[in-house]
Amino acid sequence: MSVKVFNKKKVFATLGFLFAGTVLLSSVLTTASAADIVVKDVGFQTPESVEYNPQGDSYLVSNINGSPFDKDNNGFISKLSPEGKVLDLKWIAGGKKGVTLNAPKGMVADGNTLYVADIDTIRTFNLTTGKPIANYPIAGSSFLNGMTPSSKGGVWVTDSGVAPGFKPAGTDAIYHVSAKRKIKTLTKGKDLGRPNGILEKDGQLIVVTIASGQVHHFDLNGEWLGAEAFPYNKLDGLIMDNKGNVIFSSWKAQAIKEIQPDANPKTLFTGLKSPADLGYDTKRNRLLIPSFLTNKVWIKSLPTD
Asked: Which domain holds residue 202?
């Protein structure tokens, strides 16, 4: 596949529904402004994703706790209040209460079900009790990462196609996992550029990439519609706010950016090390930013005008 030059007005008009993430924590809270909080020194271990649970009005944080490649069954998910208080650091924990959880990454809260990407398996949990529901192994996958709800039911999930040492594994792919545990490969290939964050909007899937810095566009049958590239790579989280603005994170830029029609992305926040899978508190208009390498989470209010 070659990179097309897009009519940005047409492309960005389609950007709408977003993959959610979630907020965070705190035993130690540092207020950056009236509504901005830094949560650190609370026991996070490589926080990769945050997900807002609107049903329980709480924030969930996935913690890899070790290598993102190891099946060591010590990953965990923290539960926090909207004020950043840790309600349960290891609300869901690998190796306890019948839970298997190795290196949890992207999450989706849908109804009363929490979907979690875990290396080569999607695991589901009850959002009220935290009890495990089912496992969805995906044969041939190596690094399941970004997720978003699907209009077909279930979730879309990316395989970033990396092996230990973050070397190319050649398993780059996008899958659909139905609520009935059926797995379908939407598209697969090294030319996906190590896909990460993903969202669905108006019959399209939008995917940001780690290696190429591209934004790919697909229809829901897997047909590639084209791509655009930004001047920096290592793109990770992808969300949409209440006003329809599409926001993504970049490790390379150490920033959070907002996509602009017919213009370069607008910088919202900068100076952020390893900003990973973003979350969004729809009730409070807050952006939730986990720092993969520094074991902290930033909670930042977005503009209201």
From this structure: 8-301
